[in-house]
Write a structure and sequence with these properties.
With 314 residues, chain A is mostly helical. Chain A has a single domain, classed as ABC transporter involved in vitamin B12 uptake, BtuC (Orthogonal Bundle). The longest helix of chain A has 35 residues. Chain A is globular. The two termini of chain A are 35 Å apart. Chain B has one domain: Rossmann fold (3-Layer(aba) Sandwich), CATH 3.40.50. Classes of the chains: A mainly alpha (314), B alpha/beta (259). The interface between A and B is medium-sized, with 28 and 26 residues.
Chain lengths: 314, 259
Amino acid sequence: MFSMLLGKYEVSVSDIFLIIRDLVFKTKSNVDEMSRNVILGLRLPRVIAALIVGMSLSISGVAFQGIFNNPLVSPDFLGVSQGACIGASIAILLSMNAIFVNVFAFVGGIISVIITMMITRVIKFKSQINLVLAGIIVGTLMSSILGFIKFIADPDTELASITYWTMGSFSYVDINVVIVSVILVIAFGIILYKLSWKIDILATGDAEAKILGLDVMLVRRIVIISSTILTATSICIAGTIGWVGLIIPHFARIIVGSSNKKLFPIAALSGGIFMILVDTLTRSIGNIEMPVSILTGFIGAPVFLLLLYVKRSR
Amino acid sequence: MNIYEIKNLSFKYDDNNVIFKDVNISIEEGKIYSLLGKNGVGKSTLFSILLHVIDDYDGEVKFMGKNIKYYSRKELAKIIGFVPQTPKLSFDYSAKEYVRMGLVSSTNLFSELKKEDGILVEKAFETLSIKHLMEKSFFDMSGGEKQLVVIARSIVSNPKIVLFDEPTSHLDISNQYNVLKIIKSLKNRGYTIIISTHDPNQAALLDEHIIVLDGSGKISSGETKNIISKKTLKDIYKIDMIVENLDKYNRKICLFENI
């Protein structure tokens, strides 16, 4: 609500209430049409988009940390972000329209994770450390490809939009993408939530979890697929946004402990709120909008430090 | 009845690393077996075969009358309890949550434990007289407390047999005593037990049976009082040891000669 209040065009609090009420109850209040358009056409989708992005990044962060037994893992661990960036920049390079940029990004992210998984198949080590290595290999390769694309891109137009895209922003939110994302986040969020206890058990390590009777490979595969789709979705909405998938799960861990059953909802909630807050700030500070990743880093790093400090001194 | 019946078991990691050659051994129900052998002779490999984690061996492993290959992972998890050498846990959970994990074999992919499973968890803590640890965080527990909680997890699904992989190797003397006492009490409750240990004195204390892995690829077994002798210890550990009778306690003790 607060987030919808802020922006270049002024809309009063009461008007926002009326507009939302009209939307929910199909009534028609006496509100300036311009305000209505700004709120429903621009700000509401944007707030929902930020909420969805924050939620999906945080949920997949929690899930990835759980299945890799490592609290320092973030959702783009298996290369989904880099892959998505490449997909998007190819679309930009080919002067495709926004929808195709999204589709390319989504597919690029998924392909990148598939390549990572295939490498681990080929190497055939059973430990999960090789998944980490494969992630690093693919990530490095993808960064180089992205560098190459940037190198051949037209510096005046394409390069700028590729760079802007890779830094994340909510300025070009497409309402259709948002609607699809809401459905995806609910669906895969529920799947992950239903697996939360099984993810808990992975904390005992693969060998022990298997002896206890857990189908380790199956759980891990479902979690990787679901989290990758969630992350790819968020990248489609807003480009790559760093930090959120790492610090929000941490923040949630400090509040509710390690049980994934509690972590998923708390991380989703705080991630959503955090993202709305950051987005509101990006469009309130200065005259031009700042890329979201810059702010998540600026806010995330000190908050993270503070959390660690509070945790230690307790 | 025999819990395990192993026939003509051979297993190697590669040609230079042959672990078992044509091994035959059986494990009787309700008995306690101590597994003695130097580091690297295959104690953990044997456990992996008994747990059916390793399955690319030659020969046959029968478990409760049926080839172990015909059991599902979940079925085995319900009937075989396992206590690893060092319990691993990447994130902190309470002892109660940790023990609950031992019941995962009774759930489906998306289902969770039922209310009545809580009673099983409580019972496992009661059996070991460690109810006071239930709410304690795993990371805050001492090594000894952790090991007791891991044992509670291994018996929560009411298994037939519990395998202990060197359960006392990281514990101080008093905790070793506690854990051994609990292992013995589990045996008295009817559990079949196999425990690998580095200390022949523990084997003597636990009594009944000893399984010897001497590094030749063969496994021999026998009653504890017959196995613990100067000669077998020399065969196993390749050093001379003093073996004395402790008449008052009706068992043997093993000591180093001078160093």
